[in-house]
Design a protein that fits this description.
mainly alpha; 9 helices
């Protein structure tokens, strides 16, 4: 509190509600190039087993909007060595826009600050919206299954099944005595 010169108790600033159009644009920013859900917890156990970053649903309870805005612009400036990438947004006149080579049309046509929109989106996110965001995200890439090696003899020819050591034997299993 002393470092931030923050009075106790902290009184949250009111957050402007989002239109459905703004939610859609923010969702598109999340899923069209920014890797947010790669690391952030979502409440889905399969996903969260590998997640290392906090759940967006906690942002409104734990963080201040201006701090999150600064964090989005340059996370390594606030926490050197963080896994969160820098450069997700670039300055365009007086606003910050998502730094994507080919943003979706609705994102390109949104003429307000993209980073501030994302802050509002995170602070106003509901569990239903988070599930919608997760379902709109591209599925993580999975590596193709590696072919199983085949046992071959010294001459490079696969041995007949009757001679292979990987065959299950036909004798009864031994029972511990």
């Amino acid at each position: 509190m002393a470092v931030s010169s923050q009075n106790e108790p902290y009184i949250k600033e009111p957050m402007e509600p989002m239109t459905e159009s703004e939610k859609s644009i923010a969702r598109n920013i999340f899923v069209s190039g920014t890797p947010c859900l790669k690391c952030h917890i979502t409440g889905e156990p399969a996903h969260d087993a590998k997640a290392i970053a906090p759940n967006f649903l906690l942002a409104g309870q734990r963080l201040k909007p201006d701090w999150v805005f600064r964090w989005l612009l340059d996370p390594s400036q606030i926490a050197p060595g963080t896994a969160m990438p820098t450069g997700l947004f670039k300055k365009d006149g007086e606003r910050w826009i998502v730094n994507l080579p080919n943003p979706p049309a609705d994102v390109s046509n949104y003429h307000n600050d993209h980073a501030r929109l994302l802050v509002r989106y995170m602070f106003l996110m509901t569990p239903d919206e988070q599930r919608r965001l997760l379902s709109a995200s591209p599925a993580p890439a999975t590596a193709p299954a590696a072919p199983q090696p085949q046992r071959v003899g010294r001459n490079g020819v696969r041995a007949p099944a009757s001679q292979r050591s990987d065959r299950v034997g036909h004798h009864p299993a031994r029972r511990p005595g």
